[in-house]
Amino acid sequence: MDLSSLYTDIVFEHDKRPLHAGLREPFEAEVHHVNPTCGDEITLRLHLGGDADAPVVEDISYDATGCAMSRASASIMSDLLIGHTTSENEPVAEHLDRVMHARGEEQGDEEIIGDAVALQGAAKFPNRVKCVLMSWKAYQSALIEARGALGWSA
C-alpha cells in the first residue's frame, strides 16, 4: 500500500469541509493535544448533557491543524459521536483503536465506525496511526475532564 491510498475521497471531503469545526460554547472541558512526530495539533471542546448515569455528547467542537488524515479524523469523530451517550460511543472508539493498531490485519466495520473506515489505510503506517487517533485521544481526555467538572465519576 502506498501513501496515495491513504487519502480516499472521504478523507479529502472531511478535510476540505470539516464537520463541527470551530470552537464553540458551552463546554465543560477543553483539551489541547499535539502529535510531536508530525506537528498535528487539536484543541477540542466537549459539551455533555443528560446525567451522570447516561451522559450524552451534545457537542464536540475543535480547532485542528496538521495533515489531512488528522483533520479528517477529527471531523469524522465529531460527527459519529455527537448525539449519542458516552456508553454508546465507547465501542466506536474501541473498535477504531483496535483497527488502527492491527497494522492492516483487521478491517473496520462500517456499521460501527461509519466514515472512519476511510482512515484504516493508515494502520500500516505507525506514524499515521498517531495522526488518526490524536483527536480520539483528545475526546477521551476531555470526557474525563468534563465528568469531573460536572461532579460525575469518571
UniProtKB/TrEMBL annotation:
Matches recorded under SUPFAM superfamilies: SufE/NifU (SSF82649)
Coiled-coil annotated residue ranges, if any: none
Gene Ontology MF term list: iron ion binding; iron-sulfur cluster binding
Domain NIF system FeS cluster assembly NifU N-terminal: 7-131
GO biological process, one term: iron-sulfur cluster assembly
Protein's name in the database: SUF system NifU family Fe-S cluster assembly protein
